[in-house]
Amino acid sequence: MNLIYNWMYYIASGGLILIGLYIVLVKTNLIKIVIGLHFVNTGVNILLICIGYIRGRTAPIFSKPGINPTNVVDPVPQALVLTAIVIGVAVLALALSIVIKVYGHNKTLNVSRIKGLKW
Amino acid sequence: MRRIISLIILAVIAVGFILTFSQIPFGKDKIDVANYYIKKGIEETGAVNIVTSVVLNYRGFDTLGEVTILFVAAIGLGTVLFVEKKVKEIASKSEDRSKRASLILRTGSHLLFPLILLFGAYVFVHGHLTPGGGFQGGAVIASGFLLMYLAFPRQSIDKKSFSVVESLGGLIFVGIGLLGLVFSGYFLTNFLPKGIPNTIFSAGIIPIIYIALGLKIGFELTSIIDDLLGRSR
């Protein structure tokens, strides 16, 4: 119980990253590989946010009285993840457009059937 | 065979991950650099939302770079999909006449679309006061346009005026940065008066940049949606 309470978010984000890497390494369908890359992206975002979290504190926005510098969390990881989410969406769209092109060129999404992409 | 090798690689990564993060306790106070931002942020930038002041003031140059990544991704997507799209559009123009979305979707999107735009604008105008800002508001606006695309698949946005607004947003960001260079000697300096914190006309250049960024990102993501949907139409 204590293990889950202390490490839940690390386990979740690490799990997402490992699932994403597994998909990228094992699956042969290009769409699934792109989904795996986005799994890694989500996992890294959650990891950054939960490194900056401090138990019992609130968001670093001083819009209400009673919030002072001693009870807010770290703003820097939040600022990094804020931009990373939107960029993740744009990069995902770019990757999918390249997948569309690959499909139009080879008429297959299976990586092991595309010459020059084998491993 | 490949599966076994992959699992071994993943196990190595997992061990490294566990060894690293067992040294970083979860939920403990380990703020170092950000202490300065938290304590001095309001008087130095005038924004009560410290995340916003980090994004646009302390790390404004970094954000300019990230906006550039977004721009390059949108350009790349347009370039990759451009040639085939034109050919396909001519071919499929006649067969899609009968395709229409359901009545519920069409009526509901008429009601919801202005409200979604209003909410997106609210989110990025109040970026220095409440949780939110240009990136989130832009994503909300793009989701409204996505709803319109689902409801009216045959209509499309005016690409030209969208790219004009998008470029203007980027130019305002860079232009304000250069004005800071002119007035105070540093790129992206907050040269406007800070105002009273917690009011809408405060924080100097931050709301102006966030409005420009919100429009830019919203329209950029909309043109990404248009490029991707243009393929299947």
Question: What structural class do the secondary elements of chain A suggest?
Answer: mainly alpha
Estimated structural class of chain B: mainly alpha
At CATH's second level, what is the architecture of chain A?
Answer: Orthogonal Bundle
Would you tell me the overall average pLDDT of chain B?
Answer: 82
- Fraction of residues in H or I helices of chain A: 55-70%
The total of beta strands of chain A comes to: 0
Number of strands of chain B: 0
Proportion of beta-strand residues of chain B = under 5%
Q: Largest sheet of chain A at a glance?
A: none
Number of separate domains of chain B? 1
CATH level-1 class of chain A? Mainly Alpha
Low-pLDDT stretches of chain A are none
The number of helical runs of chain A is: 3
How far apart the termini of chain A lie comes to: 42 Å
Largest interface: A-B, 47 and 61 residues
- The number of domains of chain A is 1
> What is the CA-atom radius of gyration of chain B, in angstroms?
23 Å
The coarse silhouette of chain A is elongated
Helix-strand sequence of chain B: HHHHHHHH
Q: What can be said about the biggest beta sheet of chain B?
A: none
Rounded Rg of chain A: 19 Å
Please describe the structure with a list of short key phrases separated by commas or semicolons.
heterodimer, A: 119 residues, mainly alpha, Helix Hairpins, 3 helices, 67% helix, elongated, B: 233 residues, 0% strand, globular
Please give a quick description of this structure.
The complex is a heterodimer of chains A (about 120) and B (about 230). By secondary structure, chain A is mostly helical.
